[in-house]
Hints:
With 335 residues, this protein is an alpha+beta fold. It is built from eleven helices and nine strands.
Amino acid sequence: MRTDHPELSKIFSDCAKKARLTTNTCLFPGCNKTSIKSHIMQKNGILSSISEDRHLWEFNVDHFKKEYITFKKTGINEIYTFLGFCNEHDSGLFQKIETQGEIDFEDYEACSLFALRTLCNEKWLKLVVKKQHQCVLNHPKTISDILLINKVIEQGDIALQDLKFFGDSLWDDLNNKTESFIFEWREFPKQEICLNSIFTYDTSEEIINHIKIFGIDKERLVEIFVSFFPYQDKSILIMGYHKDDIKVAKPFVNSFMREKLKRVYRKLSNLIILNCETWVCSHNFYKKKLEGLDSDFFKATIFSTKNENERRVFDINLFEDNFKERFKKFIKKIG
């Protein structure tokens, strides 16, 4: 069903395209060169291992649909990319996890490079969203809620400031051979899906209560770096957190590393479906798990915006054979 506000949708869509194309300065500190399309995960060896006819499926937003969440099939050269680094830094910085043979997941620097790529993509996305909303705000025909747009921009600036703390720590580690983070990893049976995101440990309820009590936002939030991807004949889960956050982050991360497979799959499914947007999957995974669920995923997205306890784990398991049937029941229940 098409949107009831096609003119506003066109403004948002045009501004989004413009913002994505013009947010193109290399994110390497001190570099001002024009960035190229950087893959969030290694194209040759990881993404290619689950592609069919060099295509994958991605989570997508269509501004012209009333239920604007869709899945889109995209070529491997375009999918899972962001304008993150110039050619020099994109090819040179990540050699250890892309071109230097087998990846050692016990190696701190290797894990930190996965986290750095994830962080830079998140930073780029937030810069794009900010620029998009500034474009909408300044559009002569905008009919949107100006207060809401300004609130989105303000919240984006706060999120960027949080990312700066973690980004500065990662860059310092790379430059000085220090270790500011703790990374844990675990092997799983191979799943044809890639996830690279940052999960905010603090729930919306906790953030709101802090503002009510103290009258200001938290100084910064606790962020968990999450990468889940196929590698050789397994899937690898890497999770990391800053050492300053060990008291709260360690038990959360350890639950993914120590608990039984079925429960961890539910936790990962909750992250993918309700809390993270940066993931892609194979054609086979899409056909078995996602085809025909666009409307259900839209409703799940709406539910996630209202859910104030993001750490709550719902009984959904993307990796079960009967996922479609059970997911539809879940959507009906939250309905």
